[in-house]
Amino acid sequence: MWTTIFLRMLRNILKDGTLKITLPDGRSETFGDGSGTPVEVKISDPALFRKFVISPHIAIGEAYMDGTLTIGNDDLYGLLRIGARNMRNPNGYGLQQYFVWLSGWLRQINPVGRARRNVAHHYDLSGALYDLFLDADKQYSCAYFRDPGLSLEEAQSAKKDHIARKLCLGPDMRVLDIGCGWGGMALTLARDHGVRVVGVTLSEEQHKVANERVREAGLEDRIDIRLQDYRKVGETFDRIVSVGMFEHVGAPHYREYFRHVREMLTGDGVALIHTIGRCAPPSHVSTWTTRYIFPGGHLPAMSEALQAIEKERLWTVDVEVWRLHYAETLKIWRERFMANIDKAREIYDERFCRMWRLYLIGAEMSFRENRNAVFQFQLARRKDAVPLTREYLYSGTGA
């Protein structure tokens, strides 16, 4: 019965591309419109079909990780591309949609203790793993390909420069970096722009590495990296920057987040919030992703973020949307990770490597084929806190 239901589901969903599935009994079924390079999948465990029907995101991901779903030529990229192109309504319909929404909302409730545990799940992995695919500055967020020919290192530097321009920095300004990662942004702002930075992170591994980097750079007098929740800072700053952290806040906490941003900004302060988001109505992150990669995570629709910003009486002085920059960033990360896959297996194991590969390719597809993008919200307490045109961002850059 479950096999029949699953095959019927696929016939209703798959309209673009060609997918051939070999069932446990040896039968083969083909789906799609016959276009493109066929992707061949073999399913070896009959018990999977019930799981595929009830919770497809988790079941398909786990089957690939466990090796009970195998792909011809290991073409995971092709399989996920077909999946992304045929995604019509990932939330389901009617009552099912309500329960999916409710469970996703509940997973986003992130009080301080739970937020720390969620961060540890992903960011306290071995630093050696991230060294396999990140740039030397350990920028684990979308790069900015101002020129399509830029290397990853150059594009990450361009990202930091673009953000620094939006912050309209002045000498000795106090800057708060919410979710400071391994300290790359704090180091750049203090070294190249002469400001004083307080960076906060909930990751013990990132806190340790960032402080080591600050000491090596001789910038202890200008950078203070804290193992602290942003909600516990209790100080005011001329500027606030947050890159790749808002995805972990959770929709139930959006107003709380922007309330703290407003309270921590001086009267003429400026904040730059850089986040992955959805160019579509509010939805939820796949259950596989929240279970294995980013517990408590949520990608905001622009409407969700702006509604919270408006209610907390902040001026949205600029919004910029980066569409394919993250797809290109993830492509390079994936290529570097695969070039170092044997080293990754030495750090963890084959199942982990399959999980990480699924994460990197799936994320890339979400930007190439679906509605994900990167938003940069430039915020202030006063409408005239930044120049009234964007010319200041591009003067002297050739852009």
Characterize the structure shown.
Helices cover 46% and strands 18% of the residues. The protein starts with a helix and ends in a 5-residue tail after the last helix. The chain has helices at 2-13, 48-54, 56-66, 76-85, 94-107, 112-123, 127-131, 152-167, 184-193, 204-217, 254-264, 287-292, 302-311, 325-339, 341-347, 350-368, 391-394; strands spanning 18-22, 28-32, 39-43, 69-71, 174-178, 196-201, 223-227, 237-243, 265-278, 315-322, 372-380. It has 2 domains: 2-88; 112-394, Vaccinia Virus protein VP39 (Rossmann fold, 3-Layer(aba) Sandwich). Helix 2 packs antiparallel against helix 3 (56-66) and helix 11 (254-264) crosses helix 13. The strands form 2 sheets. Strands 7-6-5-8-9-11-10 form a 7-stranded mixed beta sheet, with helices on both faces. With 399 residues, the chain is of the alpha/beta class. Mean pLDDT is 90; it is low at 89-106.
Which key terms come to mind for this protein?
single chain; 399 residues; alpha/beta; 7-stranded mixed beta sheet
Number of strands: 11
Relevant CATH superfamily of the largest domain:
Vaccinia Virus protein VP39
What series of H and E elements makes up the topology?
A: HEEEHHEHHHHHEHEHEEHEHHEHHHEH
Number of domains: 2
Assigned CATH architecture of the largest domain? 3-Layer(aba) Sandwich
Task: Count helical runs.
Answer: 17
Mean pLDDT: 90
| CATH fold type of the largest domain | Rossmann fold
Could you estimate the helical fraction of the residues in percent? 40-55%
**Terminal-residue CA separation:** 59 Å
Main β-sheet, spatial strand arrangement: 7-6-5-8-9-11-10
Q: What structural class do you assign from the helix and strand content?
A: alpha/beta
Low-confidence stretches: 89-106
What kind of sheet is the major sheet? 7 strands, mixed
